[in-house]
C-alpha cells in the first residue's frame, strides 16, 4: 500500500533533516578548528599570546664601575620610592602591576650582569605586593641581599617606612582638601 503524505508534513520533515545535517556538520567543523582565543578583559594585561615577553635579562655587561654605581643608586631610589608610595591597601590589579613592573625591570635593567643576579634573587624571593609596608620591607630585604653579595653595609629594614618618607601623608591631605572644596562648590551651586 502506498503511503500518502500530506505536503505540509513533507516540508516539515525536510526542514528537520536539513537542520540536523547543518548542525552535525557545523559541530564537527568546530571540533577540527582551533577555538579563537577570547580577547582579554583586563586592559592592563601584558600581551603574551602572540608576542612572547623575553624572560631572561638581555642587556650587555656594564664594565664602567662608576656608571654602574651611579645607575645602582638611582635605580634603588626609584625602586624604594615606588614601594613607599604604593597603596596601603592595593587592589588585585595594582598588585599585579607592581609584580609585573618589578619582573620586567629585572629583565631590562641596563647593567646586564646586575640584572642576571637580581633576576635570580626574584626567583628565590618573589615580590610581596599585599600592602605598602609589606612591599617596602620586601624591597629593603632584597636590597640587603644585594648589599651582602657586594660586601656593602646592611640597612636596618625596621625603619624603611620612616626613612623613605614618601610625602604621601601630604598628598593624601591635599586630596582630601580638594574633595572637600568640590563638595562645598556643589552645595553652593545647588542652593
Ligand atoms: C667611566 O665613566 C666615567 C663617567 O662617564 C668616566 O669619567 C670614566 O673615565 C670611565 N672610566 C673608565 C675606566 O672608562
From TrEMBL:
<dbReference type="InterPro" id="IPR017905">
    <property type="entry name" value="ERV/ALR_sulphydryl_oxidase"/>
</dbReference>
<dbReference type="InterPro" id="IPR039799">
    <property type="entry name" value="ALR/ERV"/>
</dbReference>
<dbReference type="GO" id="GO:0016971">
    <property type="term" value="F:flavin-dependent sulfhydryl oxidase activity"/>
</dbReference>
<protein>
    <recommendedName>
        <fullName>Sulfhydryl oxidase</fullName>
        <ecNumber>1.8.3.2</ecNumber>
    </recommendedName>
</protein>
<keyword id="KW-0274">FAD</keyword>
<keyword id="KW-0812">Transmembrane</keyword>
<dbReference type="Pfam" id="PF04777">
    <property type="entry name" value="Evr1_Alr"/>
</dbReference>
<keyword id="KW-1133">Transmembrane helix</keyword>
<feature type="transmembrane region" description="Helical">
    <location>
        <begin position="7"/>
        <end position="25"/>
    </location>
</feature>
<dbReference type="GO" id="GO:0005739">
    <property type="term" value="C:mitochondrion"/>
</dbReference>
<keyword id="KW-0285">Flavoprotein</keyword>
<keyword id="KW-0472">Membrane</keyword>
<keyword id="KW-0560">Oxidoreductase</keyword>
<dbReference type="GO" id="GO:0050660">
    <property type="term" value="F:flavin adenine dinucleotide binding"/>
</dbReference>
<feature type="domain" description="ERV/ALR sulfhydryl oxidase">
    <location>
        <begin position="64"/>
        <end position="164"/>
    </location>
</feature>
<dbReference type="InterPro" id="IPR036774">
    <property type="entry name" value="ERV/ALR_sulphydryl_oxid_sf"/>
</dbReference>
<keyword id="KW-1015">Disulfide bond</keyword>
Amino acid at each position: 500500500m502506498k503511503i500518502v503524505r500530506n505536503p505540509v508534513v513533507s516540508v516539515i520533515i525536510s526542514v528537520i533533516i536539513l537542520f540536523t545535517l547543518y548542525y552535525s556538520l557545523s559541530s564537527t567543523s568546530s571540533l577540527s578548528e582551533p577555538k579563537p582565543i577570547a580577547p582579554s578583559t583586563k586592559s592592563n594585561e601584558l600581551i603574551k599570546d602572540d608576542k612572547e615577553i623575553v624572560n631572561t635579562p638581555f642587556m650587555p655587561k656594564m664594565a664602567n664601575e662608576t656608571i654602574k654605581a651611579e645607575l645602582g643608586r638611582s635605580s634603588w631610589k626609584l625602586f624604594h620610592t615606588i614601594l613607599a608610595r604604593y597603596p596601603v591597601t592595593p587592589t588585585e590589579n595594582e598588585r599585579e602591576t607592581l609584580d609585573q613592573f618589578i619582573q620586567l625591570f629585572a629583565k631590562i635593567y641596563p647593567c646586564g650582569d646586575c640584572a642576571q643576579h637580581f633576576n635570580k634573587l626574584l626567583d628565590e624571593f618573589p615580590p610581596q605586593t599585599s600592602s605598602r609596608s609589606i612591599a617596602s620591607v620586601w624591597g629593603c630585604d632584597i636590597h640587603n641581599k644585594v648589599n651582602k653579595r657586594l660586601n656593602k653595609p646592611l640597612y636596618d629594614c625596621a625603619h624603611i617606612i620612616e626613612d623613605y618618607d614618601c610625602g604621601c601623608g601630604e598628598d593624601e591631605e591635599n586630596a582630601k582638601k580638594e574633595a572637600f572644596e568640590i563638595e562645598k562648590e556643589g552645595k553652593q551651586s545647588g542652593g
